[in-house]
Amino acid sequence: MVRIFGDADCRNSRRAAEWLQMRNFAYQFNDLRKGGLPPLALSACIDAYGWRALIDGRTVAWRALPEHNVCDLDQAGAQALITELPQLLKCPIIGVGDSWLLGWNAANKVRLLGNMPARGFGPVLNAQIA
């Protein structure tokens, strides 16, 4: 099953969910504001993309942070900050088994289809991240 972690108000998160629904793919939408990103998923995304790529510097939450919190930020600090303020994340973050995609664009659609079974039926990948 595909898991979408995004904001219910995010246009790209809604587009990803609609795209999967139109193609009869099983997916689960997780609102980042309500539940955040699970710790193992966050660690996997940081390993895959780096913490700088995950944080959306255009958000109100990021701009509201005190400058001293942002200047000395390292990976551990970023992980703690994202856990506390999941609205800092770029979205959507899409999980397929143990693979993660950041954002909704044509390249990620192709990557997603490469990990999906024919016609969207059956299990995607055996590995799961809590």
Order of helices and strands: EHEHHHHHHEEH
Mean pLDDT value: 84
What distance separates the N and C termini?
13 Å
The value of Rg in angstroms is 15 Å
Give the structural class.
alpha+beta
- Strand coverage percent: 5-15%
Helix tally equals 8
- Topology, number of strands: 4
Shape label: globular
Strand order of the largest sheet: 2-1-3-4
- Oligomer state of the chains in this structure: single chain
Q: Summarize this, please?
A:
The protein is of the alpha+beta class and 130 residues long.
Descriptive notes:
There is one protein chain. With 130 residues, this protein is an alpha+beta fold. It is 46% helix and 14% strand. The chain has eight helices and four strands, in the order E-H-E-H-H-H-H-H-H-E-E-H. The chain has helices at 11-22, 32-35, 39-49, 51-54, 60-64, 67-71, 75-84, 106-114, and strands spanning 2-6, 27-31, 93-96, 99-102. Strands 2-1-3-4 form a four-stranded mixed beta sheet, with helices on both faces. The longest helix is centred in the N-terminal third of the chain and has 12 residues, at 11-22. The chain is globular. It starts with a strand and ends in a 16-residue tail after the last helix. Mean pLDDT is 84; it is low at 118-130.
